[in-house]
Design brief:
By secondary structure, the protein is α+β, with helices and mostly antiparallel strands. The chain is built from 3 helices and 5 strands; from the N terminus they run βαααββββ. The protein has one domain. A 3-stranded antiparallel beta sheet has the order 2-1-5. The chain is elongated and about 60 Å long.
Length: about 90
């Protein structure tokens, strides 16, 4: 069985733009209507699917692999951390 290490960054769920767009998505889900254009572009979907709320909190973060004599892993340069990043998660999957 193999193991992989992953790195994910997240914006804060209290981010003003996220909260505004999330409110629109929830209202559309309750009304069973498609998302308006500005919210559709924000979430990347025309349909108000609940999973988009959590998925949108995840943002890309640039990682750099490093290798040493007895170790290997990832580095993140502080200058590469996207603005609005709330937390960075490092996790292993088996």
């Amino acid at each position: 069985m193999g193991r992989s290490t992953n790195v994910r960054a997240f914006i804060c769920p209290d981010d003003e733009e996220y909260r505004k767009q999330a409110a629109v998505l929830k209202a559309c889900a309750n009304a069973n209507v498609e998302l308006p254009d500005f919210t559709s572009k924000y979430f990347g979907s025309d349909f108000p699917e609940e999973y988009l709320l959590e998925e949108k909190l995840e943002i890309e973060i640039k990682t750099h692999e490093y290798h040493d004599d007895c170790s290997e892993g990832y580095e993140i340069y502080v200058s590469d951390i996207p603005e609005g990043t709330y937390k960075i998660r490092f996790y292993n999957s088996w």
